[in-house]
From TrEMBL:
<dbReference type="Pfam" id="PF00933">
    <property type="entry name" value="Glyco_hydro_3"/>
</dbReference>
<dbReference type="InterPro" id="IPR001764">
    <property type="entry name" value="Glyco_hydro_3_N"/>
</dbReference>
<dbReference type="Pfam" id="PF14310">
    <property type="entry name" value="Fn3-like"/>
</dbReference>
<dbReference type="GO" id="GO:0009044">
    <property type="term" value="F:xylan 1,4-beta-xylosidase activity"/>
</dbReference>
<feature type="signal peptide">
    <location>
        <begin position="1"/>
        <end position="24"/>
    </location>
</feature>
<dbReference type="Pfam" id="PF03422">
    <property type="entry name" value="CBM_6"/>
</dbReference>
<dbReference type="GO" id="GO:0031222">
    <property type="term" value="P:arabinan catabolic process"/>
</dbReference>
<dbReference type="InterPro" id="IPR044993">
    <property type="entry name" value="BXL"/>
</dbReference>
<dbReference type="InterPro" id="IPR026891">
    <property type="entry name" value="Fn3-like"/>
</dbReference>
<dbReference type="InterPro" id="IPR005084">
    <property type="entry name" value="CBM6"/>
</dbReference>
<keyword id="KW-0732">Signal</keyword>
<dbReference type="GO" id="GO:0046556">
    <property type="term" value="F:alpha-L-arabinofuranosidase activity"/>
</dbReference>
<protein>
    <recommendedName>
        <fullName>Exo-alpha-(1-&gt;6)-L-arabinopyranosidase</fullName>
    </recommendedName>
</protein>
<keyword id="KW-0378">Hydrolase</keyword>
<dbReference type="InterPro" id="IPR013783">
    <property type="entry name" value="Ig-like_fold"/>
</dbReference>
<dbReference type="InterPro" id="IPR002772">
    <property type="entry name" value="Glyco_hydro_3_C"/>
</dbReference>
<dbReference type="InterPro" id="IPR006584">
    <property type="entry name" value="Cellulose-bd_IV"/>
</dbReference>
Length: 979
């Protein structure tokens, strides 16, 4: 007898054969074809675009795209910041209630990058994408799905205020991490997007000093080999949906109207949606004065490739009016509008907005518990062990002192959000020690009182949570008259009220102790306590708004006590300011020393306040720790031999004394809500540190050229060209175990090495692969990162790490022929644990070509020089093109190894000269002493964009020579030829 299950299966099969065929459900009816998810995206885009009126199309070019009710289209907001979690975490409405949102805060971008782990970064991106979807569902008017992240500007200068936002000074590392984060944000669906990442900020944007008016001078090699790379890599991998131009100018042209915004679309086979940066379109007519009218400016931006104007907040009126004016004046065509709108609609379709069910990601929810675990993992993996003489990991300590201004607090940054909770270093270490251990703590900051000298009254603040206006009205220094002084360097301090734990800030009408931490665009919580010649203390306000001539502090930055006793701005100099007597009620250093003395270990947590020590709109001027923080480290180190310094900031720091004198040092970025847990995990050895530095750490700012010098080749900048001795090299980071590298195996397509964990514990090693081209027509990098892998090894375990090699990896930009080239050359192959700690070497012969001598008989782009002195690069025309710009006599450009066979008889060049007539000399082999082949007069053309051809006879010369063009005064040169 057959088993019952088999009988049932046979019966089911017979019934299925005999039953009439099922009638398929009819497809759902759609009012318009663009709503049908079964149709190709392009068909849907075409259908919707064809139904829009011209006015509706133009309205879609603003950041806040209005609803179009007749087609069932809702308001759409482009732009939600998401560098390391959702930023700002705004208030939103939920069932009529106003709710303050929180979001998982992962380590800052520079911290995430320090993990050197694309897999981890991708998981973080995915978690951020989940939270973005969840909040978008709550309030789509607040949280759009076009995320403005990641930032891929290369961190070529550690003084850049926005260093925290980027990944690395290396283009390959930055590009690969951008692919990881962008892929995580986008999700895995082959057609739809979870969110739409936008790469920031195209291009060569690394200074906040006059960021909207300075021009980055970027020679062709630097442009193609360096600054373009981290944008090209993720776009070619389809890991981003567009780029945002920077505020700066590049080679004389505002990035907002760079023609590259359109031409780089060739790097991807998908539509690109390019939004402007906030208020950047307005800069074109305001600070940059590049166009006379906004109609011209907006037309140029659209033609260049901008698809969305981030201007005037939620009000599109000015933008829409300017675009209409541009159409009326013939500066734009309807076809231009259509092209821009289609890019925007394509993105919205890929996000599932026009699908009846919202697409496959419409119901995504975030797993808060899983994201918290991931935040802890990411924070720990990002920490870099800078130095260790055996103090770490901590071995069963009973008493740990946690001291320093960042020991019991966590700070957010400008692009951070509201953390759902905060685990500080003190809390994390206390939890790890448990009930059997003791944590002693001290912030290590002075506690002071200020008494008005003339009246003897103490300055007080409010005692409640809301604080109160500061006034000199107390006769005794109780808690309301006590303030903790936090030193952030260069004399800048913040004052925290002991009465309520709130920071003192300026509120445009006076000062109040009502801020949780320094914050806001102007950061109005900054002061300097200055000592006058008469010994009195005066209070100087140094909030960022003091840089603006409309601000009260611009003319009167010193504090005075008014008739009613309240403090306000009112003096232009220290001599006119109210005099105070400063009393130190508690010495921060002495308090920290007391906590550290006799402890099994002392953990000193120092670093930066992200709103003060460099941030958007404000660069750093040096690399040093705050003076008070360094003094604190010295005092604690003297008191306790087992001192561990934790530096929590967003950039390289000159830790010269600390490197020489402190037993152990650890660096972390501002790592978010799980900082304390992650720090304890690393300090106690539960996690073996595996973070690696993504930038060169210099010994001082004296090792660096001007922050506005973008020619990394000419100025020997970054690990690729720096010839000095850094404090720590790119890729540096220590471990609690040791690794041995075997013999390198090199063939034409792979580089392999065996890596063995020779230490007592499991650990991760970041195996780094560099090369150096031995001989070349041009200056080559000293080292260049070609690949990296993070591998986990148990004690005694060996793994073979293999890197693929392709000849195209070794290409560089040949300025003689304006194209990529691979030279026939031998390359040193260098594999190790940092760019300086090379453990295995080999050689690789790359078959390529030999670059022939320059042929200056054909028209040569003047920008394609080999070297220069004094000149810069400028815009040939406002729409496109680049010229060499000289500003004074004696400046020159060099074109090396030119073949002058046949003895060219004439020089012809295209010059623009808005000023008086000047000259240009053609010299051989030396710009000052070489033979002069010609001296030509360049007449005035009256306009920097009006070019004329200047020709003249050359003294005959033959052979191979370096040709110099030496300028006699201000002039522009676009092209030239020797014939």
């Amino acid at each position: 007898m057959a088993p019952p299950a088999l009988v049932a299966a046979i019966v089911t099969a017979v019934v299925a054969v005999l039953a009439p065929p099922a009638v398929a459900a009819p497809p759902p009816a759609y009012e318009y074809p663009f709503q049908n998810p079964r149709l190709p995206f392009q068909v849907r885009v075409d259908d919707l675009a064809g139904r829009l009126t011209l006015d509706e199309k133009i309205s879609l070019l603003h950041q806040y795209q209005p609803a179009i009710p007749r087609l069932g289209i809702r308001l759409y907001k482009s732009g939600t910041e998401a560098l390391h979690g959702l930023a700002w975490s705004n208030d939103y409405h939920d069932n009529g209630n106003v709710v303050t949102a929180t979001a998982t805060q992962f380590p800052q971008a520079v911290g995430l990058a320090s993990s050197w782990d694309p897999g981890l970064v991708r998981r973080v991106g995915s978690a951020v994408g989940d939270e973005a979807r969840q909040y978008h569902r709550q309030d789509p008017d607040v949280w759009g799905l076009n995320l403005w992240a990641p930032v891929v500007n290369l961190l070529r200068d550690p003084r850049w205020g926005r260093n925290e936002e980027g990944y690395s000074e290396d283009p390959l590392l930055t590009g690969r991490l951008a692919v990881a984060y962008g892929t995580g944000l986008q999700g895995d669906d082959p057609r739809y997007l979870k969110t739409a990442p936008t790469l920031k900020h195209y291009l060569a944007y690394n200074n906040e000093v006059r960021r909207d008016t300075t021009s980055a001078f970027v020679p062709p090699r630097v442009l193609h080999e360096y600054d373009e790379v981290p944008f090209r890599i993720p776009l070619q991998a389809n890991a981003a949906t567009g780029v945002m131009p920077g505020y700066n100018l590049v080679n004389g042209r505002p990035s907002t109207v760079s023609p590259d915004l359109d031409s780089i679309r060739q790097w991807t086979d998908r539509p690109m949606f390019n939004p402007s940066d906030a208020f950047a379109p307005g800069n074109l007519t305001a600070s940059q004065r590049y166009y006379a009218t906004q109609a011209e400016a907006n037309a140029a931006a659209i033609k260049a490739g901008i698809n969305s104007f981030t201007q005037d907040g939620t009000d599109p009126t000015a933008t829409v009016n300017a675009i209409h004016a541009a159409l009326d004046q013939g500066l734009l065509t309807v076809a231009d509008i259509d092209d821009a709108v289609r890019q925007s609609l394509s993105l919205r379709f890929r996000l599932g907005e026009f699908d009846p069910d919202g697409g496959p990601y419409a119901s995504v929810t975030a797993d808060a518990a899983a994201n918290a675990r991931l935040a802890r993992e990411a924070a720990a993996e990002s920490m870099v062990l800078l130095k260790n003489t055996g103090v770490l990991p901590l071995r069963a300590p009973k008493t740990v002192a946690v001291v320093g201004p960042l020991g019991d607090t966590l700070y957010s940054d400008w692009y951070g959000g509201n953390m759902p909770y905060k685990i500080t270093p003190r809390q994390g270490i206390a939890e790890r020690l448990g009930a059997s251990g003791t944590v002693r703590s001290s912030e290590g900051v002075d506690r002071i009182a200020l008494r008005e000298t003339s009246t003897g009254r103490y300055v007080t603040g409010g005692s409640g949570a809301a604080g109160g206006m500061l006034a000199a009205n107390a006769t005794a220094a109780d808690a309301t008259a006590q303030f903790d002084v936090f030193d952030w360097g260069a004399g800048v301090v913040t004052l925290r009220s002991v009465a309520n734990g709130k920071t003192v800030g300026y509120n445009w009408s006076g000062f109040a102790n009502d801020q949780a931490q320094p914050n806001g665009w102007f950061v109005q919580q900054q002061f300097k306590l200055e000592t006058r010649a008469d010994g009195a203390t005066v209070l100087r306000y140094v909030g960022y708004e003091s840089a603006f001539d409309w601000a009260p502090s611009y003319h009167n930055p010193y504090v005075v006590v008014q008739a009613d006793g309240t403090l306000n701005l009112g003096a232009s100099s220290a001599s006119e300011a109210t005099a105070f007597t400063r009393s130190t009620l508690r010495s921060g250093a002495a308090d920290a020393v007391a906590a550290a003395t006799g402890a099994d270990a002392a953990v000193v947590v120092v670093g930066s306040m992200p709103f003060i020590n460099g941030r958007e709109d404000h660069d750093r001027t040096d690399l040093s720790l705050a003076e008070g923080q360094e003094a604190l480290i010295r005092a604690v180190r003297q008191a306790n031999p087992n001192t561990i310094v934790v530096v929590e900031n967003s950039y390289p720091t000159a830790l010269n004394w600390e490197q020489a004198n402190v037993p152990a040092m650890l660096w972390t970025s501002h790592a978010g809500q799980e900082t304390g847990h992650a720090l304890a995990d690393v300090l106690f050895g539960d996690v073996n540190p595996s973070g690696r530095l993504t930038q060169t750490w210099y010994r001082s700012a004296a090792d660096l050229p001007s922050i506005t010098d973008y020619d990394i080749i000419g100025s020997d900048r970054t690990y690729q060209y720096f010839t000095g001795q850094p404090l720590y090299p790119l890729g540096h980071g220590l471990s609690y175990t040791t690794f041995h590298y075997g013999r390198l195996a090199v063939d034409r397509s792979t580089v392999s090495v065996d890596v063995t964990n020779t230490g007592p514990r499991a650990g991760d090693e970041v195996v780094q692969f560099y090369t150096h081209q031995r001989a070349s027509r041009v200056e080559q990098p000293l080292k260049q990162l070609r690949g990296f892998q993070k591998v986990h090894l148990a004690p005694g375990q060996t793994k073979r790490v293999t890197f693929s090699v392709d000849p195209s990896d070794f290409r560089f930009w040949d300025v003689t022929r304006d194209r990529w080239v691979v030279e026939d050359a031998t390359h040193d192959v260098l594999v190790g644990t940092s760019s300086s700690d090379i453990r295995a070497t080999g050689t690789l012969r790359v078959r390529g070509e030999t670059i022939p001598p320059r042929d200056l008989r054909s028209v040569t782009q003047a920008q394609n020089f080999d070297s220069y002195s004094g000149i810069t690069l400028v815009d040939f025309a406002k729409a496109s093109g680049t010229s060499v710009g000289a500003s004074a006599g004696g400046q020159w450009v060099r074109y090396a190894d030119a073949d002058l066979r046949g003895g060219p008889a004439s020089f012809s060049g295209r010059f623009a000269n808005p000023g008086a007539a000047t000259t240009v000399q053609v010299r051989l082999d030396n710009p000052a002493a070489g033979p002069v082949l010609a001296t030509l007069t360049v007449p005035s053309t009256g306009d920097p964009y009006a070019y004329t051809t200047v020709t003249g006879a050359l003294t005959r010369a033959t052979g191979r020579h370096d040709v110099y063009l030496v300028f006699g005064g201000p002039v522009r040169l676009a092209t030239f030829a020797l014939r």
